Amino acid sequence: MITARAAATFEPVGRSVATARGFVRDTLQGWGLTDLIEDAVVLTSELVTNAVVHAGTSADVRCLRDPEGVRVEVVDRHPERELPLAEVSRGRLDLNSEGGRGLLLCAALASRWGVDYTATDKCVWFRLDQQALPVGTRSAGPVLPTEALPVSDTRVRVAVVQVDRADSITAWNDDARELFGYTAEQVVGKPLADLAAWPQTPGTGTGIAEALALSRWEGSYGLCDSEGRTVPVYACHLRVRDAHGEPSTVCLIVRDQERAILQSPSRLPAHGTDPLDRAGGDPLDALIGSPPPDDLDGLLQRTVERARDMLDGDAAFLLLATDDETELEVRATTGLPSARQRFARVPVETGSGRYGSARMPSVHEDLATAPGAVPLLSGTGMHAVVIVPLKVEGRLTGSLGVASETPGRYSNEEALRLQFAADRIALAVESARLTELERLRRGSLAFLVEASELLAGTLDRNQTLALMAQMTVPTLATWCAVYTIPEPGSEPVLSYVLHEDEERIDGIKALLDRVDPPDPDIDLGVRPWTAPADAAHNTALRSSLRSLALGELPSAGGGAPGTGLGTAAAVGGETVVLPLIARNRVIGLLALGKPTDERFRQDILELAEDLSRRAALALDNARLYSERTAISQSLQRSLLPPELPEIDGVDVEVIYRAAGEGNEVGGDFYDVFPIREGAYGFAIGDVCGTGPLAAAVTGLARHALRLLAREGLGGPAVLERLNAAILEEGPRSRFITLLYGELWPQPEGGALLKMVCAGHPLPLRLTPDGTVAPAASPQPLLGVMDDLELYEQTTVLNPGDVLLCVTDGVTERREGTRMLGDDGLADVLGSCTGMTAGAVASRVLRAVERFASDAPSDDMAILTLRIPE
What are the boundaries of the region Disordered (predicted)? Predict the structure, then answer.
């Protein structure tokens, strides 16, 4: 009868083997089958390797539990691949050969095993039966003297908490009330996760929700009491179901120092058997098992677990030395209350009693007599500890330690045993570390190349800030904040905040708004910043006390942004500040943070420094570009005419498009302005070229037209004087095509037009019957010849007539060898009968845009005059 199932699928890549081992180990640990874990993990590793490496297919791993033991199935998608079953059954397999080794191990370790074929897959399975125990006995220990018994309070309290399928508390006994200060009424219906300070163990992803879903779980974590303090506890969770089949979890909880009341004893070696001897005398196999993990984290985690078991300890840890051997970085722990020290760095030599003996084996009989001797174990309840160095060719590469809660547990004999095993593992660890460093360096280089390309692809300041944050979160940090310094000497301004959980962003921003920004002194360089964590801690404490005063549980969300325990946990870890330096001054600051109990790896900080240098230059370039664009656009806008005047009896519309990014004014220009009572001037022109140089001549022409027209000069005289002014510019002068006219609205309807078309595309007149014809004749352009003989042409616009004036950006619109031209424009205008001036201008613009697929390369101006019917 199957009582529990677990399954997972693994891709055909090498790292899947380590992941599959972890899956089987965690599953059997959760089911309480600790005595079967090692054999199951070894067999799974071999069979998954056969599937994903040798067969080259994905692998399904299924764990099936029954009352007698567990069955593990490994399914691949290569049914036709032959297995050396006959050789295995006859025991003739070559032990030096890779082929069939997994099946040989199955034959040696499993209670039963076999292979099942279907048309599409192959299933290799093995079964491990639990060892039978005497009736009524699960475990027993020797008679101990009174002083050797575990210490507890006078009145031992065991909290019994029941949690339903939604992880909400349904039962809370009196001992739980005494231990944590909450009454049953305060907690029933609340999620247990609101009270739990859950540790994240390196190498596993098990959280409180996953632990509550397991059939059985046992271990340490913390629970927040009614005063906001975290109480370390030891708990045993058991998943049960009631008569209606409804599942729930019963949690037995004691103080962590009283864990002996609930703790299940680990499987001990047979009497007189040395762990090294059981591994065939090879300390390397005893320490890391066979086959060894194929990744550094897996190797380190396996090492500390085996080292703890080898010396029958309660905890173990492994630190790796930095490249200069001046610091040790925590990389793997087991048996400690949490992973808060992961990636923490401690000096190798800081005086006696700390890590001064890191290069030599050391034994501490009781840490209580030497406070601070091993900072990693402070506050963990560990007393005895043995620490040995990892050395390769005389160079310190790391440190391995095993600790026990019992004082005096270790002597020089254990130190020698651990050192002998550490000497064998040191080379494997160093090789895996160098492989990881090379992989990280390649990844860092690829990351920086991609970051540089992204940062170089924009000159927008806000987009640059967003890119900086998005590249750091979550690759380098859990959250980040970007401060900018608008002017030299000014205070940093919080400009952008990002967290990998979007729901935390507002809370972190509110918190940072209340914190003084980091000091922008360039000499401070990269440095830790404790202000956010301190502010978060104080805010969370005030929130907890306020909730307590109101008789409520502390909320993870809090009452307002930034006030909740969730925000405090999000910024409660290590925070570092990196200056953004460009052109020898600090233009901003980049703050990177980790959540509570987490720290940065050294290689991550080095990568963040490289990124900050690139980001600073990109941000400064974006700032300079924004300033230049703002100045340019401000000057250009000053060249545009004011709003169009309202002319009685005439409908006027203008559309203007300047070519080039960031340009608001180019070589084309227009104007409509009053000359005198009852008379209006209008103009549309095109200066040779585009951009700011052409815009400068545009300003000269537009202002000169207004001035000369209001002096009472006629159209030809106005253009002749403008021509002289342009020629006086000398080398800066540019020729201009210009259509200038005077508009005289008539009382009886219609309007009288007097126009001069100096080299400009001819204006087109549309009558209500759809006829399109030029309304003027061409004359010489301006800015070329000194003596011009220009003349004025008169025409009358009747009700319903439309006058269309455009620049050559409209008529010379091209698609390959095709051009819109005067005829194409006339066709477009001919379809506009009955339309308003605005509708005519819009239809002409759409026709120009649709004529070619690429963006227009020349300035465009469209001016329409219509006499309403």
Answer: 264-283
